[in-house]
Automatic annotation (TrEMBL):
This is TIR domain-containing protein. The keyword Protein biosynthesis does not apply. Disulfide bonds join C29-C35. It comes from Electrophorus electricus (Electric eel). It is a single-pass type I membrane protein. Keywords: Disulfide bond, Glycoprotein, Immunity, Inflammatory response, Innate immunity, Leucine-rich repeat, Membrane, Receptor, Repeat, Signal, Transmembrane, Transmembrane helix. SUPFAM superfamilies: L domain-like (SSF52058), Toll/Interleukin receptor TIR domain (SSF52200).
Length: 724
């Protein structure tokens, strides 16, 4: 047993023995091994399954925890002993609870805290010791073993002194909740964490003259720009009592919540956030607040709305900013219409109130002559009626999320900023319907994001020559050629817009500024016309080039040569059986048949000649016969004349002889000029033949008969030489 058990405790335990053993086990355990044993009248730790993960023993009569009471429950993750009348906890009571994540010892009667309680809770993230009877904290480092503790709740009405060791060793701490209603002494830096906390809650902080410096020191230690500050039950009695709050302001805390606070001071700012107001609304102390400048009301519910007099104590003569957000329409009418004129009001926010008539709202705000900013967002207006009157100085109007499907000309003439975000606009509102705005040439900023716009054109913007900014993102933009060109080129004169396309699919999600539209998409007919003209010109140039360079002829002859050789490769006899293949025109056949053939074939040493009329194979392709005859002949004898040059088949024979010369790499050509012929009449593409005519002596048929004997002699000599 613990050494600190008092005599009274022993007597109480003895007297309570019958009841202590009346209930020894708790069977109210769920499938997930969470045992709810609250309000069961237990006098000691009951028996539960050893595999229990959670154990709720709150609101029982367990005055003491001995060393072995929890030893068997090694899997516990959560242990709740809230209001269980604990007086004594022995050393190392949680020795087996290495996995414990939540421990609640709040609202018991513990007068002394011991570090031995927490030595084995190395991974405990949440500890609550609020509302016990200890009077001093921090004289010894109680929590130094809780390296993973993130949430700590401590303090009670009896706590009078805080020492510097309160947060020693708590390197992972993120949130604290502190109760300090009767604190008499505080060492500076006691609550200063090793790193900024994410949230701090202070309850019952005193602001009496004798405790102002303590409250100031506490707020100084815990305040940080990244810390959310919550102050509960804060009493403001005079101007001096507000001084500790300057520590919060000076530290740059961005999130402040002051709940359940009373004030007797002169207010400048008043906020009601998510509260329910009951009764008749009489202000504490019947104070008057002539310096009040700002009122912010959000999610307010007043049980007796029309009998509620809370705001009657606030003179609205000096109000500059009024916000009524997320209240019902009756509260808005009660607060606005019931107050009458507010002469200095310049900012009014009545968003999120289910308002339906923008005409009535315009009549309400028309009386606020100095109003410059009006927020009507997140209401249900649908359209803007004709009977709208607006303050002359209104420069900012927020109509976002009001379900508008069109914008009419009946908007304030003095606007600098108009927000139409998140509505149902399908077309860019017509600037031509705002003649007054055009005349004034206002520098205006327009917000039309998240509507259902498809596109807008230069004419929609050109009327606002001093348009400064247009935000039109997240619409259903159809990226046509005109729209993309307008935004990429022309729109720079009016506004800078960055957005993405919704359609067509090829451009969906792409930034408009980065889209490259093809000329065939934007200018199809001109582009196709130009392409056709270019194609025709190219074909014409290619044809002209081929004609000049005889490319088609070369291709044609090559194909014919290859095809002829391929078709007759098997059957063709390539042995030379003729002395000469005679190529001549039909117009010269009389000379060939009556003079040339008899002279050569009937001579003493006769020559075997190949003539197309008698030696070509019937039924064979003519080109094949030409190639075959040239290949079977020792040489080719051309009888040149003007008729020869004009003959199509003679030209073919010249062509294939030309190819044969290259193929066999020989000069087996004999030329006879039957009549004078210009060398230039032979096509230039027959470079080899032209070279032969230029390099070799050709025979000319003499017109004088006495010279013909020499001609025949020279011809036979040429054939015989070639034959040898």
């Amino acid at each position: 047993m613990c050494e600190r058990i008092t005599l009274m405790t022993v007597i109480f335990i003895v007297l309570s023995l019958p009841g202590m053993f009346s209930q020894t086990s708790c069977s109210n355990c769920e499938e997930h091994s969470f045992c709810t044993c609250s309000k069961k009248g237990f006098y000691h730790i009951p028996q539960v399954p050893f595999s229990a993960l959670g154990l709720d023993l709150s609101l029982n009569n367990i005055e003491m925890i001995d060393q072995g009471d929890l030893e068997a429950y090694t899997e516990l993750l959560e242990l709740n002993l809230h209001k269980s009348k604990l007086n004594v906890i022995c050393s190392h009571p949680f020795k087996s609870q290495n996995h414990l994540e939540f421990l609640d010892l709040s609202d018991n009667h513990l007068t002394n805290l011991s570090s031995s309680w927490f030595e084995n809770l190395l991974f405990l993230p949440h500890l609550n010791i609020l509302g016990n009877n200890y009077t001093t904290l921090g004289s010894n480092p109680i929590f130094h073993t809780l390296a993973n503790l993130r949430i700590l709740k401590f303090g009670n009405p009896h706590l009078q002194k805080l020492e510097k060791h309160v947060l020693y060793g708590l390197d992972s701490l993120t949130k604290i909740e502190f109760y300090c209603s009767n604190l008499k002494a505080y060492k500076n830096g006691s609550l200063h964490p090793n790193k900024p906390l994410s949230a701090v809650t202070i309850r019952n902080a005193l602001t009496t003259p004798g405790n102002i410096h303590i409250t100031s020191s506490i707020l100084y230690d815990v305040s940080h720009p990244s810390t959310a500050m919550v102050v509960l039950d804060f009493l403001l009695t005079d101007n001096i009592s507000v001084l500790p709050l300057w520590e919060v302001c000076n530290a740059g805390v961005k999130k402040n919540h002051f709940l359940k606070w009373n004030s007797k001071s002169r207010l400048i700012y008043l906020e009601f956030d998510n509260v329910e107001l009951q009764g008749d609304g009489q202000w504490y102390g019947n104070a008057t607040h002539t310096l009040l400048e700002t009122i912010h009301i959000r999610k307010i519910y007043i049980t007796k709305l029309f009998n509620f007099s809370l705001l009657k104590v606030f003179p609205f003569d000096n109000i500059h900013k009024l916000s009524i957000v997320e209240c019902n329409v009756f509260v808005v009418h009660w607060l606005c219409y019931g107050r009458g004129t507010i002469p200095h009001l310049n900012t009014l926010n009545i968003s999120q109130n289910f308002l339906r008539s923008i005409g009535e709202i315009s009549q309400l705000v028309f009386q606020f002559k100095k109003l410059t900013s009006l927020d009507l967002s997140k209401n249900n207006f649908n359209d803007i009626p004709e009977n709208c009157g607006w303050p002359l100085n209104l420069t900012f109007l927020n109509l976002s999320s009001t379900k508008l499907y069109q914008v009419t000309p009946y908007l304030p003439q003095s606007l600098n900023i108009l927000d139409l975000t998140d509505n149902d606009l399908t077309t860019f509102f017509p600037f031509s319907t705002f003649p007054n705005l055009i005349e004034l040439k206002l520098e205006i900023t327009l917000f039309i994001q998240r509507n259902t716009l498809n596109m807008f054109a230069k004419s929609d913007l050109s009327r606002y020559m001093r348009l400064q900014s247009l935000e039109a993102g997240q619409n259903n933009f159809v990226c046509s050629c005109e729209f993309v060109t307008f935004l990429q080129c022309d729109v720079e004169n009016f506004v800078t817009l960055t957005d993405a396309c919704d359609s067509p699919l090829t451009f969906q999600g792409q930034k408009i500024k980065s889209i490259q539209m093809s000329i065939f998409v934007c200018h199809m007919i001109p582009a196709i016309s130009i392409l056709c003209i270019e194609t025709i010109v190219v074909f014409f140039l290619c044809g002209f080039t081929c004609y000049k360079l005889y490319i088609l002829w070369y291709l044609k002859m090559t194909w014919a040569w290859l095809q002829a050789k391929h078709k007759s490769a098997v059957s063709r006899n390539t042995n030379v059986i003729y002395d000469a293949f005679v190529s001549y025109s039909d117009h010269d056949s009389e000379w060939v048949e009556e003079l040339l053939v008899p002279e050569l074939e009937k001579a003493e040493s006769s020559f075997a000649l190949c003539l197309h009329k008698r030696n070509f194979q019937p039924g064979h392709w003519i080109l094949d016969n030409i190639i075959d005859s040239i290949e079977k002949s020792h040489c080719t004898l051309f009888v040149l004349s003007e008729h020869f040059v004009m003959s199509e088949w003679c030209r073919y024979e010249l062509d294939f002889a030309h190819f044969h010369i290259f193929d066999e790499n020989n000069d087996s050509v004999v030329l006879i000029l039957l009549e004078p012929i210009d060398k230039k009449s032979i096509p230039k593409r027959f470079c080899k033949l032209r070279k032969v005519m230029n390099s070799k002596t050709y025979l000319e048929w003499p017109t004088e008969e006495d010279m013909r004997a020499e001609f025949w002699h020279n011809l036979k000599a040429a054939l015989r030489r070639d034959k040898s």
